[in-house]
Structure formats: structure tokens, C-alpha cells
Amino acid sequence: MPLKPSLLELTPDETRERVMELGGKAFHAKVIRTAVLNKGILDYQGITSLSKGVREMLAEEMPILRGREVDRSLAKDGTTKLLIEFPVEGGKNALIETVHIPSHDEAKGATLCVSTQVGCPVACPFCASGRLGLERNLSKAEIIEQYLRGRDIGRLSRSVVMGIGEPLLNLQNLTGALKVVREEIGIGARKITVSTVGFPDRLAKLGKTNPGFQLAISLHTPFDDQRAILVPAMAKVPVADVLCAGDLWFKDTGRQITYEYVVLGGLNDSREHSERLAARLRGRRCTVNLIPYNPVEGDRFQRPSRDDVEEFAEELREAGVVTTIRWSRGLDSDAACGQLRLHAAQ
Ligand code: SF4
Fold first, then answer.
1. Closest Cα partner for 232 from 119, 118, 124, 117?
2. Distance CA 4, CA 222 (A)
3. How many CB atoms lie within 10 A of CB 228?
4. Structural domain contains residue 1
5. 36 C-alpha to center of ligand 1: Å?
6. How far is the CA of 24 from the centre of ligand 1 (A)?
């Protein structure tokens, strides 16, 4: 049987049309969207201002959530990882991860890390998500559903689009979902960071329509030959072109870029790397964020020592590059990107 259209797939106008098609009143659409998207009511039975008959009809004909939580993993620091399964019409169900990361200061709310694809075609060899290849893009509704499930764990104040998948390869569904996140769920554009490996043409497209997102570009090395190995889908795009795309973004949006750099012990943290990276970034207003590698079972990469990461950061700072270090949270709980899903697939 074909899947019935989910509320989260629809725009406000489409919701109104659908509700009226189903025999409801036009004003029900606003009541429903406010209750679900703004107030976080995830079951029509909880919208008590609607009659029992309307609630039952909606539950039958216009589902809110389609996914099923199949695993939840909680780290000592409060980070929660959800493994969510989405049904696929006539196909294999899709598994994705969403991570809820509470702030150290509870009053500040949490950051939600969302996925945009089932698997990832970029195939970075140090990433669990890249190992299983791409199955498909997530729909707009499936991206929004992650926010609703995340907010159900605890209040959200920020979001990073850094989970499974390459966001710019699912641009239309992502921008559709983030419109709802900004306008109806209530996380402002400036609190949303989109993280990409930096496809220049797609970045230019997003930059022109950008409503104010923060941008992070995963660079991982200043050398073309090494980037072709570490970020295989970008093998034909020189680092210089990625940096130019970043410059164009800055020109179009006025927003500085963060260059993400996964530090792989002994592989991309030498003095040669820091010097070349600093030379590449000279004159650019940006930040480098170092992410010490999180071990993934059975791969060949090493987590760098704390001292080595600090030293690499210091070399960059001395060369004039604004540099931060992001020590991953939740390491005790399948916390490396894509690990829950990898386990479920084994
Ligand atoms: S690190 Fe990001 S871009 Fe690379 S394979 Fe993993 S999810 Fe894809």
C-alpha cells in the first residue's frame, strides 16, 4: 500500500489543502502545525482543541512521525544518540542517526546533529557512515522528524547538519526542511551550521539563497593528493577551488567559514601540514576547527595524543590562523559518526 503523505512533507498551504480534502476546516491546519512544530505535540490525540473525530481522521490519513526509534545510546556526559528507522515503500527500510548534545549549562539548551542521507557517497575512509555507501537521500519530512524527536529529548537551541551524508548532495530537501526548522520549530538560521566537503557549484547556489546559516567546510588536509584519499568524492576538486568557493560564500553572505580538520594521528598533523595549511589560509577570515579523530572499529587510523593536537593547534595559531579544538563528546557510547548504524548493519 502506498505511504500516506506525512504532515512534515507539506508546506502550510499544502497542509490547509490536505486538511480540507480530508473534510476538516481550513483553520485546523494552523492549529495542527503550531501544536506539532512549535509546541512539540507528536500525537494528534494530544491536540485537544480538535474534536476526537478530526484527531482520529488525521492520525489515519496524515501521519506526523513515520520513523521508529530502534536504538538509543546514552553517554555519561548526557549525549544521546538515536538510531531511527524510516519505512521505504517497496524497499529496504532506512537507518539513520541523530545526536542530541546537551550544553554544559542546562539552561542553554542542546545542539542537535542531524543526518541528510542514508549512508554517504563521499566515502571518507575514516568515517563509519562512508563505509556502507549511499542508499538514498532523506526526504524533507525525515529531516524534520529528527528535529521533533531530538526536541522530545530536551530543548534545542542549536543544530549542526553534520550527521550521516553530504548535505549539499541533498540540497532541495535540506533547504525545505531547514525553512520549517527556522520558521516553525524556532531555531534561527544563525544557530544552524551546515557542514560540507565543499562542492563549489552547490556552495555557490546555497550562498546565493542563503538565509544566514553558518558554514563549515571539511578540509582535513592542505594537500591535493592527500585530500583525494581522505575525501574521495572530491578527488578532482583542488583544495584551491574549495577555498575559492569559501571566499565566494563569504562575499555572498558576509559569514566567516569554519574549516573542519579531522586530526588523524601521524597522518595529517605534521609541521609540513600546519605550515601549508597556514599558507593556504593566509589573508582569509576564517577559523580552523581541529577534531581529534574518533576511532572506528577495524580501521587503520589512529587517535592523536592530546599533546600532538595541542602542538598542531599552536603551530597554526603562531602562523596567524584562528584555531579551536573540538574534543568529541560521548566517546563511551558508540559516539563516532555513523557507528550505531554500522553496528546495526553488521
Ligand atoms: S565524514 Fe562526512 S562526508 Fe565523509 S563519508 Fe562521513 S558523512 Fe560522508
1. 124
2. 48
3. 17
4. no
5. 31
6. 44
Could you confirm whether 127 is annotated as catalytic?
no
Distance 337 CA to ligand 1 centre (A): 8
Based on the fold, state whether residues 261 and 304 are members of the same structural domain: yes
For ligand 1, is residue 128 a contact (CB within 6 Å)?
Answer: no
Q: Please report, for the domain that includes residue 325, its CATH number.
A: 3.20.20.70
Distance between start and end Cα atoms, the chain: 29
Task: Please indicate, yes or no, whether residues 36 and 172 belong to a single structural domain of this protein.
Answer: no
pLDDT tens across the length of the chain (346 residues): 677 889 999 999 999 999 999 999 999 999 999 999 999 999 999 999 999 999 999 999 999 999 999 999 998 888 999 999 998 877 778 899 999 999 887 778 999 999 999 999 999 998 888 777 899 999 999 999 999 999 999 999 999 999 999 999 999 999 999 999 999 999 999 999 999 999 999 999 988 886 689 999 999 999 999 999 999 999 999 999 999 999 999 998 999 999 999 999 999 999 999 999 999 999 999 999 999 998 877 778 999 999 999 999 999 999 999 999 988 665 444 444 555 454 554 4
Question: Are residues 250 and 103 part of one domain?
Answer: yes
Structural domains in the chain (count)? 2
208 inside domain:
yes
Closest CA to 218 of 205, 206, 207, 237: 237
Q: Which of 113, 110, 118, 106 is nearest to 142 (CA)?
A: 118
- Residue 16 and residue 128 in one domain: no
124 catalytic? Reply is: no
Pocket test for ligand 1, best of 120, 174, 199 (most atoms within 8 A of CB): 120
CB of 342 within 6 A of ligand 1: the answer is no
**Same domain flag for 107 and 143:** yes
113 and 211 inside one domain: yes
